[in-house]
Amino acid sequence: MVRSASPDEMRSLGWRYIAFQNVNNGADQASIPVLPFLKYLQSKSLITGAEYLSSVEFGNEIVNGQGETRVNAFSVTLQ
Fold first, then answer.
1. What's 77's DSSP letter?
2. For the residues of 3-72, what is the DSSP string, one character each?
3. pLDDT at 11
4. Contact present, 41 and 18 (Cβ < 8 Å)
5. What are phi and psi of 12, to 5 degrees?
6. Cα(8)–Cα(13) distance, rounded to whole angstroms?
7. Alpha-carbon distance 12 to 56, whole Å?
8. Using an 8 Å Cβ cutoff, are 58 and 30 in contact?
């Protein structure tokens, strides 16, 4: 069984859960630089800049309806 911790559970363990949600409908392809997101969080004092990024995830959060997602390639490049 695979189970993810809820944001409340993560906070109780000392982890901060932060998610950015795409407000546009779909994209054929995208390149998403992470640094602007981290700088935004730092400007809002949500992170100090001393934290570690522990994961990068991609996927759907199904609420209702139906649809299809096809991923031909997914990669993360660290610089």
1. -
2. -PPPHHHHHHTT---------S---S-----SHHHHHHHHHTTS--S--------------SS------S
3. 72
4. yes
5. -65, -25
6. 9
7. 21
8. no
Distance in angstroms (rounded) separating the CA atoms of residues 41 and 44: 5
Q: Tokens at residue 15, please?
A: 């982890």
φ and ψ of 48, to 5 deg: -95, -20
pLDDT in tens, the chain (79 residues): 445 566 677 778 777 777 777 777 666 677 788 889 889 989 988 888 898 877 777 777 777 888 788 888 888 887 7
Q: What amino acid is encoded at 38 in this protein? A: L
pTM of the predicted model as reported, rounded to 2 decimal places: 0.61
Which residues neighbour 37 within 8 Å (Cβ) at sequence distance 6 or greater?
20
